[in-house]
Each structure stands twice: as structure tokens, then as C-alpha cells.
Amino acid sequence: MKMLKRVSTLILSRGIKSSHSTLSNKELFFRVHPSVSQALGENKPVVALESTIITHGMPYPHNLSTAKEVEAIVQSEGATPATVGVIQGKIHVGLSPDELEHLAQCRNALKVSRRDLPYIISKGLSGGTTVSATMIAAHRAGIPVFVTGGIGGVHRDGHNSLDISTDLTELGRTPIAVVSAGVKSILDIGRTLEFLETQGVCVATYGMTKTFPAFFSPLSGFSSPYHVCNPSEAADLIASSLSLGLQNGVLIAVPIPDEHAAAGQHIEEAIQAAVTEASSKCVTGKDVTPFILQKVNELTQGKSLQANMALIRNNAKVGSQIACALSKKTAQSSSKNPNQHCRNLSTKTKSDIVVIGGINVDFIAKGKTKKIHFGQTNPGSVCQSFGGVGRNIADSLSRLGQAPLFISATGSDANSDAVFNYCKHMNTSGVARLKGHNTATYCVVISESGELSFGLGDMDIHRQITEDYVSQFEKQLSSAALVCLDGNIPVSTINYVCSLAKKHNINVWYEPTDVERASKPFLSDAWKSLSYSSPNMAELCNMNKTLGIATPNVLPTSLDEILHVAVSLSRPLLEHLHCLVVTLGSNGVLLCGEKNADSVNLQPRKQKRKRQLCAVHYPALMVPPEETVNVSGAGDSFAGALIAGVIQGKDTENCVRMGLLAAKMSLASQHPISPMLSMDSIDPTKLKQKNWPTPSFFWIDKGVLV
């Protein structure tokens, strides 16, 4: 991890402390409506709806009124509707009234399946999403329940023509529950069910029997493997599937309501007649379905459309009830394990960690030349990313088997939508979305080598992480094994948490974010309640200055002098702090604290006591400059992995090695916290890392190395 001096991108330094990750193209064309994003953020039930019924199912204005009616049904059942559509090359999850109107009147709207998404987006076109495309969008947004009329299937003679709907393969690879009225009898229902079995899709009929419905008819002549009797049982089934991590969906088949079954039977007879006519007229391929539907509408004098509407209304009602039951179930599960993020329905190792800090949406301009010339346009690239020290540490912990409760604040704007979409693997239930405020943004300009030229930030939202807001989580804070604070939050909030720490003997980790903010806990006696802190040399100096302790005017450059000064500055703070983790950039990291064998004791202390103090210096791992992609998140990656190791009870050497390996991964990733980060990827016992740098042990006695 040792970097060349000219690169100036030191693995554990804080040149650009707000972390930056390159925003992938997915974020550029993906839009979540604020009502949907807010509901997901608050762990409330959301139901996804497709839009081909709007663009291709009915004429205007009947299609618009139907879409609004279905959304109203979802809302009346206590859920938030999220109609999915593509508008001018952007995938929208949740549509405004104007956007619904646009799709309803769009004459050149395309029918968008998985296959079509790349083309539609690349051309900036609009269209209605089919089952498969809606599943993709809903899953990406974190919505577990999707309601539709009926899914596609294996077409008759499909074993020869291979005409098989992509709906079936999507169910086999996208973990979302689809509520539908089965499949139309114009399809080969038997082979459709066989194909779903091959795809590993759990199929259950909603009701008292296993009879699989055939859209307009409750009877298809085939049976589902299982059945669920009510919303609660359906929610149990969905939750079990998602918790197992099976990367496939669940199909809940809802029979047509009894009052429409008779009309449905008449429609089925018309369908059979239409199928026969299509065969006699040699209608084949993609022309079969439109021909049959048109013929059925003629034969039933429009009754098929009425029955279709009845099905959609019923499915919306049942699906919403299931979504509400699922939301309630996960909320109850979360109350038993408050650190589990119910929105994701993921199974994570229980962790009593709370992280309080900032979230930033960053705009990074990187020059293509070694030097940035002011007053003129410089060649370079600009990208959007996500940062914030607190967010980064919570992200790192989340990827390492923990489930920290993250407390922060954002605005209620498009930037916050992007944040919640990116952070859906984290427990963001403690993040407030505040109307009338802007999500924190940071714009930074760096040279080709990573040198910081200048930055501009709008961080006012961090002031809203107030003592009053944080106190709502006092129960979680009081019982936490560790609380991590970053320097972005107000001094009063830091003081409040430190007072809780003193009262309940909580271990608090303070992560400075820059030289100025490093002093916040030291403006009062609050710092005496801290257990850990991880400053760099400049921040360590400012901590001492705030306490009235003399510090050097110029920081040393040789390693021996750096270690001497670092230990001298750490000694006064160790009168109360359990451990200091001093980050030294390319010179590695220095641990200062209680001696335990030949190392520093990192494990949380239960009470203060007299102890022998020592320091251990760990050299950095070397990373070739040409392999360095992003330097901004290395320090936070190190801190998150070190904390994870401490919580998991690992020895000090393995904790530090985990941190160094996580930082190394961050350097090689476009993201501040590498998406590939996992316990397996940084477990020193599983990795054959050659030539681990040898740590150096020192006694601490009144600030000198002995």
C-alpha cells in the first residue's frame, strides 16, 4: 500500500476525506419517484406495477383511468404504488400524474422487455415495461412484490418453435414475488409449469386449493406445487425465499374472483375458438397472440376486456395485502433484531454497532494532465459518486457481515433517491429525509495523479443530525457494543453521545474527517468518554492543541521522527482513550494503547484501569501507482474493516491486516468501498499474502520510545 511520494495519494491519509465512487451508468438512467423512495426508506409496503397495459393494453383514455384506478386500489390497501415505465431513455420506478399521462398518450411507445432495455435506453425512447423489465426495475429499487395481470409462458408448439416468454427466465433469475392470475389458456400451461420448475421458481396458488388458474378461468386442468391461504402465508413464503438468498422469484397465482368466473368460462370458450381459427388461417409466431386477443374481444362483445379489468383489480388488491403483510412481518423481525434492515430482507450477522455521520453525493472532476491550469478549460472527466465518512464506514461494515444502524440526514431530492438506491444493502432506517433541505454535495477537482486542486461543498444538512434527532435512537445507542461518530456531526450531538457512553459504559470510536473537525470532542470533557479514535498526524496535533498541549510547528519527515512525535502526542490522550489508531499515510499505521503480549489490546474495555502502554507500528502494503484507481476511500475502508475485526473478536494483528487489505481493495476500485469487499476477500487466515511487513513494538513511557 506504500505509494510513491509524487502520487500524493496515501492510503490512510485524508486528502479528500469525503469518499468518491464512480456512478455507474445504471444510476444515470434509473429514476425512483420520491414517494416510492420515501416509502422504501421508511420500510413501508410498496407494490410494483407494469405499464404495457397502459401503452399496449387499452386505448386512451381508458388506459389512463385504469392505471389510476389500479394505483388507487394499492393505496387503499395501505401500500405505495410504483408503476414502472421507460420515458425518454430513463427507467422510472413510480410515475407522476404527468408521466402517466405521457405514457398513456405516447403513440410511438415500445413494448419493453429485458431484451429491449439496452436499445430503448441508448436511443432515449419511451415504452411500457413487460413483466420481465418491470421485475428488473422493481428488484433494483428494492421492491419485493410485483402485481400484474398474467405472465407469459411456453407457447403452444413451443417445444418445436422455442417460443418461450422471457417472463419465465426472469422469474428464474430475479428474486421478486410476482402476483398474477396464472397464464392465459392460449399458452401451453403444462409446459409452462414444467419450465418454471426447471428454473427453480416456487409456484403457489392463492386460495384453499392447489388448482392453477388459467387467467379468465380458475380451472386450467393443472395444479401448482403449493398453495397459500391468505396474505400472511404468502408473506411467509416470500420472506423465506428472499432470506435464503435464492436468486429466483416466487409466483403467486390468484384465481379470477367467483363473481366473474362464469363470464370467464364463456371467454375461455371464445379463446378455444380463436385458437382453432388462428391455426386454420396459418397465423404463426408473434402474430398469434394479437390475433387471438382481437378475435376473443369480438366473440365476447367486449366482455373479455371487462373480465381482464376485474382480474387486474383483484390482483392489485391481493398483491397489496401480501405486500403489507410482508412489510409487517419484516418490521416485527427487525424489532427483534433492530440492526437488521427489513427493506432488504437479507440475513446478516447480528451486530450491535451504530454509525452516526454524513452522507455526501460527490462530483469528481479528474484532469488528464499532471497540473490543473486555473482560468481555462482543462481536459478531464467528471463523474458522480457517493461519500461521507459515516456512510463509508457503515458500508464497509455492512459488506463484512455486520448490520450497523446508520444514522444520518439527507434532503428530500433526486440526490437522496440516488443515495438510497446505492445504499440498499445497508440499514439506512436511521437516515432522515428532510424536506426543504439539500442532500450534502461535494465538488472536487483533482489532477491526473490524484493531487487535490480544490473542492467546494454544500454540507449544511449535516447540521440536521441533531441531538434531538439522534436521541430517538437512545435505546439502540445505550445497548450498542460500539458507536462510531464522524466529525461531520454537530458538537452538541457528539457531546450527547459521549454522555450516553459515560452513563452506559459504551465504547465510542471517533473518526475525524479533517483537521478542523478533529477538535470537536476536545472542546469539553466529552473526549474523556471516547474509547477509540483514528486521526492522522495533523488531526492528532489539533486534538492536543485544543487541550492546550504543545505540538511541533513543523511535522517531521523521517520515519523515526514521525513515530517519536506520534507517540508523544498520543500519550496524553491515552489517559482516557482506550486506543489510538494513528494513520501515517505511506508510512502505515501506528497503534497506541494497552499492552497485551507483544501487541496493543484492541478489544473493547469494560472498565477503566491502570495499564501498561505500548505502541506498534505496522508498515503499509505496497500498491504500484499504475494499479491505483481511486484513493479517497482507503482510510474509511481501513477503519471499517478494523472495527469489524474488533467486533468479531479477532486478534490485533489480524484486525490490522484486514484493514490494510480492505484499503488495498479500495485503491484498486472505482468505488471508495469496493463492492467486492467481503470477509473472504480480506480474511488473512484464508489469503496467502506474501511478505507481510513486520510490525515494530515500542514501550510508551511519558511520550518517548524506549
Give your account of this protein's structure.
The chain starts with 24 loop residues before the first helix and ends with a strand. Mean pLDDT is 84; it is low at 1-27, 334-351 and 702-706. Helix content is 37%, strand content 19%. The chain has 706 residues and is an alpha/beta fold. The strands form three sheets. Strands 12, 15, 16, 19, 20, 21, 22, 23, 24, 25, 26 and 27 form a twelve-stranded mixed beta sheet that branches. Strands 1, 2, 3, 4, 5, 6, 7, 8, 9, 10 and 11 form an eleven-stranded mixed beta sheet that branches. It has a four-stranded mixed beta sheet with strand order 14-13-17-18. Strand 23 (589-596) and strand 24 (599-600) form a beta hairpin. It folds into three domains: 5-22 and 337-705, UDP-N-acetylmuramoyl-L-alanine:D-glutamate ligase; 45-143, no CATH class; 144-326, Indigoidine synthase domain (Indigoidine synthase fold), CATH 3.40.1790.10. It is elongated, with a radius of gyration of 29 Å. It is built from 24 helices and 27 strands. Helix 4 (62-76) packs parallel to helix 14 (303-336).
